[in-house]
């Protein structure tokens, strides 16, 4: 954490990818602005409160951001792991529609 109204948090880039961090940050863009950069083996996020009168503390926003990043990372992992099953289901559904009949 840094000074009042700003905080810096880092994530190991071998654990989380940049897109996951960006998606997660977007969820809080109504409360804070983000300066996101990569540095060697980490992704660094600097958060700045948009309104210092917000009802949520910056510390709580950082905690929620960390949870959201974990959530988005797990969603991506599940999406990737179930891609084949989804494609088989979609292929089966569309094979019964007659759309491919000439």
How is the secondary structure organized here?
Elements: E1 6-12, H1 18-27, E2 32-39, E3 42-49, H2 58-81, H3 83-95
Antiparallel strand pairs: 1-3, 2-3
Helix pairs in contact: 1-2
Keywords:
3-stranded antiparallel β-sheet, 102 residues, Alpha-Beta Plaits, single chain, 46% helix, alpha+beta, elongated, 3 helices
What would your notes on this structure say?
It is a single chain. The protein is an alpha+beta fold and 102 residues long. It has one domain: Ribosomal protein S6/Translation elongation factor EF1B (Alpha-Beta Plaits, 2-Layer Sandwich), CATH 3.30.70.60. It has three helices and three strands, in the order βαββαα. The protein has helices at 18-27, 58-81, 83-95, and strands at 6-12, 32-39, 42-49. A three-stranded antiparallel β-sheet has the order 1-3-2, with helices on one face. A hairpin with a 2-residue loop joins β2 (32-39) and β3 (42-49). The longest helix is centred in the C-terminal third of the chain and has 24 residues, at 58-81. The protein is elongated. The N and C termini lie far apart (63 Å).
